[in-house]
Amino acid sequence: MSTPLRIWLTGASSGIGLELARQLAAAGHQLALSARRAEPLQQLAEQYPGQLLVLPADLTDAASLQRAAHDIGAHWGALDWLILNAGCCEYVEVDEFDPALFRRVMDTNLHGNVECIAAALPLLRQGNQPRLAAVGSSVTFCPLPRAEAYGASKAALRYLLQSLELDLAQWGIGVSLISPGFVDTPMTAVNDFPMPMRIDGQSAARRIIRGLERGQREIRFPWLFTLFLRLLGNLPNGLRFALTRGLARPASNKESS
């Protein structure tokens, strides 16, 4: 990419977010990095003096997101890409069905991203070929056991972005939904069930960046795994139920940063 972009990336302290930050910074882009933990962001910023803004923020704290957006506006005046990468995952135990778990997951994966979009939209409207992107999940292609909260939050995010694409077109803002399979990150490291076709964070980041540069509406990877889930999800309900009932057991609760 010939012209450096002004990019706000959330969840940049670990996993896919940290790999995205490294690769985008190495490509010469200007980055505003947000996460709850500032130390990993500061360490990366020291490698690229004057190129990276460290803006600690929590998706569940709307005021911190507004402050971050204000600082971005003060430094750059506009935003070219917003990449919503931060998220969390907790698995549901139906014998201890906990509404609070659902609220926690929804507060981060849906409501927090809505707050971030609201803070960033005025800046995106001033950007150069602006693009809004968010990391969803391939779990939205097919319901899986114990993923009630996580899957519902990512399904809501899918609908949100696909609907926003229609309304943001009037301002020339493109929208990309990122639908990964299993990626080797701290969030998936606690899983104690098989994760087929898992890829590393560096490969995931490369595929995301390539898809964003191409302006893809949906960035799916790895393609064979996501294709399998899409086909599985489109089977007759009885057959889908029989094939998926025993998947992803057992597992441990987990949450990202």
TrEMBL record:
Keywords: Oxidoreductase. InterPro entries: NAD(P)-bd_dom_sf, SDR_fam. It comes from the Bacteria. One of its GO terms (molecular function) is oxidoreductase activity. Transmembrane segments: none annotated. GO terms for cellular component: membrane. Belongs to the short-chain dehydrogenases/reductases (SDR) family. This is Short-chain dehydrogenase. It comes from Halopseudomonas yangmingensis. The lineage of its organism: Bacteria, Pseudomonadati, Pseudomonadota, Gammaproteobacteria, Pseudomonadales.
